[in-house]
Amino acid sequence: MKSNRNFRLLMLGQSFANVGDVLYVVSIISVLYKMTASAAVAAFVPFTITSAMFVSSFLMPLFIREYELKKLLLGSQIGKTIILLVLAIFMTSWLHPANYHFLFLLIAGVAFLDGCANPIRQTLIPHYVEDDELLQANGLSETITQLIQMGMWMSGSLLLVVFQQNQLIWCTFGLFAFASLCLSHLKRVEHHAPVQEGKWLQFTVGWKMIKGIPLLKALAQMEFLEAAASTVWIAAILYVFVEEALQEGEQWWGFINGAFFVGLIAGSVLSMRYSFYIEKHRGNFIFVGALFGFIGTLFFGTTSSPLWALLLSSFIGLFGQLKSIPQQTVIQTSISREQLAAVYTSLGMIGTGIFGAGSLLIGVVAHAFGVRFVFFLSALMLALSSLIAYRNRSQFLKKSNYEG
Length: 404
Prior knowledge:
Elements: H1 5-36, H2 39-66, H3 69-93, H4 101-128, H5 134-162, H6 165-184, H7 205-212, H8 214-229, H9 235-245, H10 251-273, H11 275-280, H12 282-302, H13 306-334, H14 337-369, H15 371-391
Helix pairs in contact: 1-2, 1-4, 1-5, 1-6, 2-4, 2-14, 3-4, 3-6, 4-14, 5-10, 5-13, 7-8, 7-14, 8-14, 8-15, 10-13, 12-13, 12-15, 14-15
C-alpha cells in the first residue's frame, strides 16, 4: 500500500477537499449568524447539507449507470470548485442582508456534489488496494479524515479571528482546485455497474442487493438504528446537555467534542496497527464496538461529572471506530466491486435520511422529556444494533455473492 500511487492520490485529494469543506462551513455559519443574528438561520445550514446529500444519494444510481467512477468523482470535485468560485465572488462583491438566501442554494449545490462523491471514494478504495490491505487502507483513510476534522474544527474559529469569511472562502476555492488536480491523475478503473431495464428501475439496484444478501440487510438495519441514535451528538443537543446535565460552561462542549475525535483517531490507529488480527475477528469487533457504544452512551446520559463525560466521549469514539472500519471492509468484500457504488448509495440514503429527519425531531423530544431522556433513547437504539451485530457476527467473516 505504501507504493500505491492511486491510493495516495485519492487520499491527498480527499484530504484537501476535507480541509476545504470545514473551512467553508465554518465561514458560512459565521457570516450567516453575524448577518441575521439568528441561531435558527445558522442551524439551517446542516439541515440544508443533509437534505441535499439525501437527494444526491437518491439520484446516484442513474449517474453510476451513465458515467465512469473516476469521471464522476473528478466531475463532482470540479463542480464544487466552480461553486466555491461563485460563492467567493458573491461574498466579496454582492452579499448583503437582503440576498443572503442565495447562500443556501450554493450550500445545497456543494452538498449535492459531496453526496455523489462520498460513495464513489469508498468504492474506489478496493479498486486501488489489494484485499489483504483493505482494512489497513480503511483505517488510514479514517485516521486522515478524523485528524483533519478535529484539527480544522478546533482551529476554524481561530482562523476567523485572523481572516475574514470571504478570505477563507477564497482559500477553500484554492484547496478544492488542488483536490481536483490530484483526482485528475487517478487511474481509470473498469467498472460495469449493474443495470436494470428501464431508467427508473435503476433506483432499485442497491436496495435489491441489500435485500438479497442477509449480511448487507443486517448492516442496513444497523445503519438505520445508528443514524437515528447519532442525532443526540448534534451541536444543539450536546450544548444543552453540557449546560443542564453537567452544569458547565460552553468550553466543555468543545472539550467533549475534542475527546470524541481523539477516540476516533485512536480507534483508527489501532485498526491500522492490528489490522491482521482485527481482520481475522472482524465479526467480534463489530459486535463489541456496537455493544460498548451502547454502554458508553447509556453511562454518558446518566453522568453529572464533566470528567466522566470527557472519558466516555473518547470511549464511544474509540469503539465506534473499531466497529466502523472492519464494517467497511465487510461491505467491500461481501459483493463485487461493480456493485459497491449502488450499495454505498443506498446505505448513504439511509444514513442521511434518518439523520436529517432525526435532527429535526430530537430537539422536540429533548424539550418535552429532558435532555437525558434522548441519550437513553439513543442507547436503546444502539442496544438493538448490538443485538443485530451479535446475531450476525459469524456472517461478517464470510464473503457473499449477490444472486438477484
